[in-house]
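A.,

Following up on our hallway conversation. Structure tokens first:
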């Protein structure tokens, strides 16, 4: 929310504002704010439009490989995971570049798949190049994956006998977008230098403070690992899921009794998932089980089992198996162009999902990186079942899609009920929703900031609460408007504090924001001790908002307000 507002007011990305992604999306949102006014409705519209676009494209892609019912399931599964009332969604995400780059990447795959059907390259290939250039300006690592997919499509065409002249022409038409993106970054580097761009902002340099101290830990947290035991365990889960589903489909096709048993087992699985999501509803009927076992161990154990079937954490690995099978079939068929769509789907699914390699999940970061995994895994199932001597009847696919869709719906249902986020956090710039207690605390903090702004008093918010700046229509006092772990290098902290001394903020609002995902949860104790010590030397506590505690796992957002000492 905050960065586009600051840009619309004349600040410069990367120079006046820290920003870890490409420049396209914040400037696009700032243009909307300039044209229509600063309000969350424009961000909500962009987010919902992005989610809708990805859903439609996923369905269209799935229809190239899957029956109608499974294609509908693929779109439904994405829609259910895309819009929960959570920090990680498409309507108001932790990072709009993640949502937009997903849309661009899925759009590129769709264009390349449609282009495969023609003897010579069509306008879709240059269009995919334009989207790849936009992706590079949105999120650099996704842009690399997008250009890798475009190059893969060009190589497949070259090896499949496409005329060299036509292929060269389309390849040259892809270059302008790549050169334009490179020119933007070249200008930014010339204006600020390599280190400002790729160490202070986008952490790509190997010797940047972020990469050296937190990069490896962060990669493991989101699911990218090189540990052989973890990789083997994840691959076993994913490939095991394909084996299980394929065996059930084959057996259900051949024997009616197995079909009925499978459907009954699927219904039982969905009922079990209901219990794991709402265990307190069933507690009176299961009183004969030890309360300690029922309350903690059993639901968690059963939930792990149901998730292996409904949303397997290793579901990216079937893409790799599909890629191997499709490549072998393409080579045996004399590099026939008609075999290339499965190669592109598998390469796109694995290449994009590798970011959260062993942690595909129905919430959190994976909803931006594993959108193609279900399509590729089901395409592998359909391909394996296509080798049967008899066709799979539609009712088998319909039953499979119904069970999976029902299970995912039940799994996601707690994140959509009203009591999950019941209370508004409102201002003239729009509304978000939170837990009732948390909303009351946030509204109290916003009112305090509003009063300080009207009195022309400056307020510093730590460690990461830029939402308060947005709702109170105030501005941060530093290039680093957030002080999360790893963002302010230790050798830059003296300069950061000197800048704050020049600004002389009257108040400091210090929240209990915990950061266990970085391995250092408590601000001022586990990281940025110098900043916390500066607050202690220059300010005295005057007000608490909620039950403020300096602990690693606070349950509700709270804060303490400091006033500058005489």
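Then the amino acids I'd put at each of the 566 positions:
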């Amino acid at each position: 929310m905050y960065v586009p507002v600051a840009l619309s007011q004349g600040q410069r990305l990367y120079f006046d504002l820290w920003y870890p992604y490409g420049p396209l999306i914040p400037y696009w949102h700032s243009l909307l704010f300039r044209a229509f006014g600063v309000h969350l409705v424009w961000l909500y519209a962009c987010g919902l439009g992005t989610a809708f676009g990805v859903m439609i494209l996923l369905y269209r892609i799935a229809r190239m490989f899957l029956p109608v019912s499974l294609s509908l399931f693929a779109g439904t599964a994405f829609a259910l995971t895309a819009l929960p009332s959570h920090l990680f969604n498409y309507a108001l995400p932790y990072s709009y570049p993640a949502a937009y780059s997903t849309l661009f990447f899925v759009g590129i795959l769709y264009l390349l798949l449609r282009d495969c059907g023609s003897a010579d390259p069509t306008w879709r290939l240059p269009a995919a190049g334009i989207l790849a250039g936009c992706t590079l300006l949105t999120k650099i690592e996704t842009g690399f994956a997008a250009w890798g997919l475009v190059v893969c499509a060009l190589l497949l065409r070259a090896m499949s006998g496409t005329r060299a002249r036509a292929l060269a022409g389309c390849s040259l038409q892809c270059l302008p977008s790549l050169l334009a993106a490179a020119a933007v970054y070249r200008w930014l580097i010339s204006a600020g230098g390599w280190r400002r761009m790729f160490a202070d902002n986008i952490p790509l340099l190997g010797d940047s403070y972020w990469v050296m101290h937190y990069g490896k830990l962060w990669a493991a947290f989101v699911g990218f690992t090189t540990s052989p035991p973890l990789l083997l365990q994840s691959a076993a889960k994913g490939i095991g899921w394909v084996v299980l589903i394929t065996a059930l489909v084959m057996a259900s096709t051949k024997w009616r009794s197995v079909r009925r048993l499978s459907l009954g087992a699927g219904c039982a699985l969905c009922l079990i998932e209901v219990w794991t999501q709402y265990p307190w509803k069933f507690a009176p009927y299961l009183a004969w089980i030890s309360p300690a076992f029922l309350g903690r161990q059993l639901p968690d154990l059963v939930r792990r089992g149901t998730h292996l079937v409904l949303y397997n954490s290793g579901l990216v690995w079937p893409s790799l198996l599909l890629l191997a099978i499709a490549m072998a079939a393409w080579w045996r068929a004399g590099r026939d162009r008609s075999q290339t769509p499965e190669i592109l789907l598998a390469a796109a699914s694995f290449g994009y999902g590798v970011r959260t390699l062993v942690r595909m999940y129905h919430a959190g970061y994976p909803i931006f990186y594993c959108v193609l995994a279900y399509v590729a895994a089901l395409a592998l199932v359909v391909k394996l079942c296509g080798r049967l001597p008899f066709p799979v009847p539609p009712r088998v696919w319909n039953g499979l899609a119904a069970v999976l869709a029902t299970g995912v719906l039940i799994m996601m249902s707690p994140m959509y009920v009203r009591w999950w986020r019941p209370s508004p956090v409102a201002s003239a710039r729009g509304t978000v929703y939170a837990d009732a207690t948390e909303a009351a605390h946030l509204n109290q903090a916003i009112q305090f900031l509003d009063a300080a702004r009207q009195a022309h008093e400056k307020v510093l918010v730590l460690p990461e609460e830029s939402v308060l700046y947005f709702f109170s229509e105030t501005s941060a006092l530093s290039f680093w408007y957030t002080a999360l772990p790893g963002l302010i290098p230790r050798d830059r902290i003296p300069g950061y504090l000197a800048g704050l001394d020049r600004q002389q903020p009257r108040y400091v609002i210090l929240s209990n924001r915990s950061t266990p995902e970085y391995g250092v949860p408590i601000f001022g104790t586990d990281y940025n001790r110098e900043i916390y010590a500066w607050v202690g030397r220059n300010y005295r506590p005057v007000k608490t908002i909620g039950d403020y505690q300096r602990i690693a796992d606070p349950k509700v957002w709270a804060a303490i307000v400091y006033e500058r000492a005489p």
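The first strand starts at residue 423 and ends at 427. Curious whether your intuition agrees with the design.

B.
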